Amino acid sequence: MQETSHLANRVVSLPETIAPGQWPTALAPMQDVTSLAYMRVVARRGSPDYYFTEYFRVHGTSRLDPKILRSIEETPDGRPVFAQLIGENLTDLRRTVRELREYPIAGIDLNMGCPAPRVYKKNVGGGLLRNPKVVDRILGTLREGIPTLFTVKMRIGFEDDRHFDTLLELVSKHEVDLLSLHVRTVQGGYRSEPSYPHARHAVQRLSCPVLLNGNITSAAVARKEVTGSGAHGAMIGRAAIRNPWIFRQIRQIQANEKVFCPKLEDVYLYVNELYEEFSDSRVPEAKQVARMKKFLNFVGLGVDSRGDFLHQMRRSRTRDELFSICSEFMCEGGRGATPFHHQSPSSASRVSEPSFSLGNNSCSAEFESPSS
Ligand SMILES: Cc1cc2nc3c(=O)[nH]c(=O)nc-3n(C[C@H](O)[C@H](O)[C@H](O)COP(=O)(O)O)c2cc1C
Fold it and tell me: How far is Cα 144 from Cα 175, in angstroms, rounded to an integer?
């Protein structure tokens, strides 16, 4: 896809996909998840076509977060990385864009979807969707400062879709190069039923590509919803935590090949790698175990649908305890060869079961634990 724009004759071209001719997948930005460590673990199981970073906060005294910069500079597989920003002050946004342009990014993405009250109350993230005039100024400023790809990630509205068409017009007006659409309102959080017809509507209204996002729980769902909406591709968040093979599986399903079905021994290796990649000698073991439990909350019911694994692993306190429980459920007694139920539950209520609560100023703040 290549076209020229009147904006300083900008040449717009989305990066090639891994499998030529296939539609692209993207790993959704997830704060405290999609760091370099996580990207490495996913890449070993089949990279997404595009990565989006956790968001860089943009305000008067903000500096580029070195941890997020690492995920740009050291991507494990050389796949394109889009750097996500969250903010609203035009001067600060301009400065941050200038700083980011020194780094090997494929483009810059604006967060217009974060539903955490502490975020949207400052009129950033999802809060912007209440005010199209402010969005107009921000998109104009960013477009002016970004000679490469300028992308937007947004929801269909704040409490409803009353501004949806206006927002799409602004996306067109400012020649956004790619829209990732999370097909829920901000107030719908992560649990409301995703509205795929809104993706179809956006595809019809826009000339730029649209990535469909929201409860894409398996390769089969990705194919169905991307085809049904006419979207350019799929952006996947939580299902990739449960099933890091999903990007490879989507390539296989597009090629009409047999789709890889992970076994519990594969999950055991995944969990081990997560622990190793995220481990940090400066962080107390209890904290590292607590972080692993957040990941395992997504994986747990696929290991044991009765919930015994979830129950036991949540009671572990040390690394040894945690891995002894993992080994019992995923390896011992011949369990390693058992298929892992990698397809997340498809209903909106089930998919939000897993917990990744990171504090109430986080995009994922409203996640609740399955047992809570
Ligand atoms: C733990 C977590 C952190 C998230 N952090 C961000 C973020 O930093 N920026 C963003 O635009 N969206 C963020 N999101 C939203 C996801 O990118 C995605 O839009 C949402 O999870 C819906 O997609 P899914 O159903 O495939 O998970 C986050 C979601 C989760 C679960």
Answer: 10
